[in-house]
Structure formats: structure tokens, C-alpha cells
Amino acid sequence: MIILAFTFFISHFSTSPCTFLHRSLLEAAVCSPCFFFLRNKELILAAGVVPLLQEMTSNHDSHPSATALYLNLSCLEDAKPVLGLSQAVPFLTQLLKDETAPQCKLDAIHALYNLSTYHDNIGYLPSAGIISGLQSLLADLVTKCGQKSQ
């Protein structure tokens, strides 16, 4: 039910600015067990979720939900070229460098991996700063491991 409402909402209101209601619906969809079914992901992608996701990335409070949704959609073969051409790669790469929750970074790295399995997306990764993002992620990991050993 949530997925159908979400799909309807996106298809009819995706041109309006991202509001609290948009974010709430996205968070409900991501947290819903129904979201994990392949057909539901396809419906959400077909309804035009990408522009709404791009709006969500401008709000720091929405980053975890947007990242989780990017991760879930990046599993779809049909979504990989669409997400590759969107702002997904720069956004996900930046999350690797930013101070953000570990789960958000983990979702970002998995989504980037999924997107990299589509050949045409490979060229977007270096230009989005994936190398410095991975270096930052590794530096954080080394720092945290060093703190635990002391």
C-alpha cells in the first residue's frame, strides 16, 4: 500500500520542491518491507523518483534516506544508467568524504559499487572524486582502528 501511494505521489507531484511530506514518504518507502521487492523498485523508478531524490540530497537531514534509496535502486539494471547520469555518483562520492553516519557511508559505497557494474558509469566515478572519497574513507578507518588499539 505504501509503495502504491508513493508511486502515485511521485508521478503527480515530483515537480514540486522537496517538502517534509516528500521526505516522510521516501523514508516510509525505504523502511517498508514491501520496498525490497524488485517490482516495487521498478515502479518507483518508473514513477520518476530520481528528480525527487536529487532534491533530497540538498537537505542534510535527508541524506540517510536518500542514500538508502540510491542503494536499493542501484541494484536494478534499468536504474544504473539513469542513476549514472543523475547527481547520484557525485552525491554518494561526497558522502565518503563527509562526516556522516557509518551506515550512510556503507550504503554509499555499496551503491557506488552497484553503479560501477554498468560499463558506461565507470567514467563518471573518477570525475566525481571516487579516488579521494575512498582515500578519505580508508583514512577514517585507519584512524578509528588506531584509536581502538590504544
UniProtKB/TrEMBL annotation:
The keyword tRNA-binding does not apply. This is U-box domain-containing protein 7-like. The keyword Iron-sulfur does not apply. SUPFAM superfamilies: ARM repeat. The gene is LOC115752846. Residues 1-15 form the signal peptide. It comes from the Eukaryota. InterPro entries: ARM-like, ARM-type_fold. Keywords: Signal.
